[in-house]
Automatic annotation (TrEMBL):
Protein name in UniProt: Branched-chain amino acid transport system ATP-binding protein
Keywords recorded for this protein, A-Z: Amino-acid transport, ATP-binding, Nucleotide-binding, Transport
SUPFAM superfamilies: P-loop containing nucleoside triphosphate hydrolases (SSF52540)
Matches recorded under CDD domains: ABC_TM1139_LivF_branched
Keyword Cell membrane (UniProt): no
BP-aspect Gene Ontology terms: L-amino acid transport
Domain of life: Bacteria
Keyword Transmembrane: no
Similarity comment: Belongs to the ABC transporter superfamily.
A GO term, aspect molecular function: ATP hydrolysis activity
Residues covered by the ABC transporter domain: 2-233
Length: 234
């Protein structure tokens, strides 16, 4: 279980997260909603212990162990994976290389490149294409596939459907829901409420660095009028 408590994060002297408390349980798909610039990516970066922002207060615990103070690879070693906003692929590496640089083809346990290709047949067809030759949707599939190759227990997905065509968004929703059912915890940053509701069990809403609303997806499906003021209506 991922437990975030009273986290305050800064860029320089600018306070961006002001006391964030939330959690993700095993097998739970949790959506983090909020408009542009509210601090969603800053929270994801705080969890991954990336160089910026600086977390100056609070705790981020994974199965009871404090993550703050670790290096990003230490976080990854604890089976926390990141699908970063904007995909961050290597332009000159092939699809297969992106996957096998994390786990060589000789390893047959857990996620393998072939299993990723079974899940995303489109990527299988593009396995020799380089990062800069892929479409937006293919890049996103590869970013998800690459994150899975560490055999994570929780995946942080930062707006994976950003910029994708509706059919690709639906495909991704199906994959996220299926991954959740396998016991993987997923923290899904999303701007679109309806896209989030298609897959998630619980919802948090962030507004200027604070969680201003928490509800089960079932509650939100029944009545989301109190949330709408915090969201972009699409
Ligand atoms: N490296 C940085 N240095 C200084 N300020 C930053 C930095 N990155 C983000 N910020 C600021 O922190 C605030 C939160 O940004 P963040 O990227 O976390 O928002 P977000 O909710 O992920 O937005 P979006 O939905 O647009 O991705 C914004 O005001 C942003 O300008
Ligand atoms: Mg962001």
């Amino acid at each position: 279980m991922l437990e975030i408590k009273d986290v305050q994060s800064f860029y320089g002297e600018a306070l961006v997260l002001n006391g964030v408390t939330m959690n993700v349980k095993p097998g739970e798909v949790v959506a983090l909603l909020g408009r542009n610039g509210m601090g969603k990516t800053t929270l994801i970066r705080s969890i991954m212990c990336l160089a910026q922002p600086q977390v100056r207060a609070g705790s981020i615990k994974w199965n009871g162990e404090e993550l703050l103070g670790l290096k990003p690879h230490g976080v990854a070693q604890r089976k926390i994976a990141l699908v970063p906003q904007g995909r961050r692929l290597f332009p000159s590496l092939t699809v297969t290389e992106h996957l096998t640089m994390i786990k060589p083809t000789s390893v047959k346990e857990g996620w393998t490149a072939e299993k990723i290709f079974d899940m995303f047949p489109r990527l299988a067809e593009r396995r020799s294409h380089r990062g800069n030759q892929l479409s937006g949707g293919e890049r996103q599939m590869l970013a998800v596939g690459r994150a899975l190759m560490i055999d994570p227990e929780v995946v942080l997905m930062d707006e994976p459907s950003e910029g994708l065509a509706p059919v690709m968004v639906q495909h991704l929703e199906t994959i996220i829901a299926e991954l959740g059912k396998t016991g993987l915890g997923i923290l899904l940053v999303e701007q679109n409420l309806y896209s989030a509701l298609a897959v998630c069990d619980r919802v948090y809403v962030m507004e200027t660095g604070r969680i201003v609303h928490e509800a089960s997806a079932a509650e939100v499906r029944t009545d989301h009028s109190s949330l709408m003021k915090y969201l972009v209506v699409q």
